[in-house]
Amino acid sequence: ENPVKEQLKELKFLECCIKEALRLFPSVPYIARKTGKSMVIGSHQIPPATIVIIMAYCLHRDKDQFPDPDKFDPSRFLPEASAHRSPYAYIPFSAGPRNCIGQKFAMLELKVIVSSVLRRYKITALCPYDDLQLLGELILRPLNGLPVTLTARPHIS
């Protein structure tokens, strides 16, 4: 049986794990925006109507925001760890007025799927993290897929 919505709200550490996975491997690795007016970013003057590319994949690896950025550490998303982080340091669903309107639904859907699979199976990746080759097109994905093994867990009533 799948968890109900109230139970999904209680899966706080699972949510931290999902957020950390999306930090390391954002589904959409970059976002393009067109500037509406002239602006200054750092020491650079950006004219209006300039296409700006925001690299979420790189942004999520900012050492100032995420120490040891290549390490999988779900505790980064515990409330006390993320309270003072800029809301624009982590943007797996974009940010601002053009963010994903379905991000809350997506998180609920991810919790249902991940919790359902993990209750039934142990998942083991057959490709070491350091050997993973990524293809960052419109969607970030492993270049050659990601082979895994599934081992059934004992059924618990």
Overall pLDDT level: 92
Fraction in helix: 25-40%
Strand order of the largest sheet: 1-4
| Helix and strand composition category | alpha+beta
Q: List unreliable stretches of 5+ residues.
A: none
Give the count of helical stretches. Answer: 5
Biggest β-sheet: count, sense, barrel? 2 strands, antiparallel
The gross shape turns out to be globular
Q: How many extended strands?
A: 8
Q: Total domains, how many?
A: 1
Helix and strand run: HHEEEEHHHEEEE
Cα-atom radius of gyration: 18 Å
Strand content: 15-25%
Organism: Hirondellea gigas
Main location: endoplasmic reticulum
Subcellular location: Endoplasmic reticulum membrane
Cofactor: heme
Describe the protein's architecture and organization:
With 157 residues, the protein is an alpha+beta fold. The protein has one domain. Helix content is 28%, strand content 19%. The strands form four sheets. The chain has a two-stranded antiparallel ribbon with strand order 1-4. The longest helix has 18 residues, at 103-120. It starts with a helix and ends in a 5-residue tail after the last strand. The model has no long low-confidence stretch (mean pLDDT 92). Belongs to the cytochrome P450 family.
Which short descriptors sum up this protein?
two-stranded antiparallel sheet; 157 residues; two-stranded antiparallel ribbon
